[in-house]
Amino acid sequence: MSEEVWTKEYKIERYRRMNESAEKGSVLFAGSSLMEMFPVEQFAAEDRLPVTVYNRGVGGYVTDELLENIGVCILDLAPRRLFINIGTNDLSDASRPMERIMLNYAEILTRVQQTVPGVELYLMAYYPVNYDAAAPELKDCLKIRSNEKIALANLEVMKLAERFNAKYIDVNDPLKDEQGNLRAEFTYEGMHINENGYRAIYPLVKKYILE
C-alpha cells in the first residue's frame, strides 16, 4: 500500500476493524506518532511476554483528535492497562495554550476512567528533542517545541497523574545526551525516535507492562 493511503482516517478505520477481534483487558499504548512508531507489539512478541499488547497510536494526532476517536483508539479495547503519550503535536503549535492541552488530556483520562472501571493508567513523559540534529524543515517547529517547553509540559502531566491516581513514567534517561537533548543517533530528524532509541527505553517500559 502506498504511503499516501496511510491517512489518519485510514488508520482509524483499520483499527476499528482490528478491534472487532482484539482481546479485551489487554495492555494498550495510545497517542500520536511517538507512540505509533514505538514497535512495542513487535518487542513484546519477541520477548514472548505473557500479556497481549496493542498499539493504537496515530501519527499527527493532537489531543482534540484523540478525544474525537477515543472509542476506536482506547475504549473499544477496554484495556487493563493504558500507556498514553499525547500532546506533543499540541506543544508544536504556539497558538495552543498549555492549559487547553491539559484540559483535553484530563478529559481523555476522565472518559477512560468512566468507561473502563479499574483501568490502570500510565502517563508517559514527553520525549526530548534535538534541535541541532533537526532536519532544516523542522527547525522552526523545534524552536516552539523546545526541551524547555517539554519540561514544563511534563510537570503538568505529573499533576494529571496525581489527580487521576495514575503512574507518571519517565523513561527518557537512555534517550538523552549529556546536554539533555535527544541523542542524535536515536532520531531520524531531531524529533521522532528510531528503532534503536525505542529499544533503549523498552526494558524500562517492559518493567511497567509486567508489574
Tell me what you see in this structure:
- With 211 residues, the protein is of the alpha/beta class.
- It is built from ten helices and five strands.
- Strands 2-1-3-4-5 form a five-stranded parallel beta sheet, sandwiched between helices.
- It is globular, with a radius of gyration of 16 Å.
- The model has no long low-confidence stretch (mean pLDDT 95).
Uncertain segments of ≥5 residues (pLDDT<50)? none
What's the average pLDDT?
95
Distance between the termini: 38 Å
Give the overall shape, derived from the CA principal axes: globular
β-strand percent reads 5-15%
In short:
By secondary structure, this protein is of the alpha/beta class. The chain has helices at about 10-20, 35, 40-45, 65-70, 70-75, 90, 100-115, 140-145, 145-165, 195-210, and strands at about 25-30, 55, 80-85, 120-125, 165-170.
Summary tags:
single chain; 211 residues; alpha/beta; 5-stranded parallel sheet; 10 helices; 45% helix; globular
What secondary-structure arrangement, pairings included, does this model have?
Layout: H1 8-19, E1 27-31, H2 33-36, H3 40-47, E2 53-55, H4 63-68, H5 70-73, E3 81-85, H6 88-91, H7 98-115, E4 120-124, H8 139-144, H9 147-163, E5 167-169, H10 195-210
Parallel strand pairs: 1-2, 1-3, 3-4, 4-5
Helix pairs in contact: 7-9
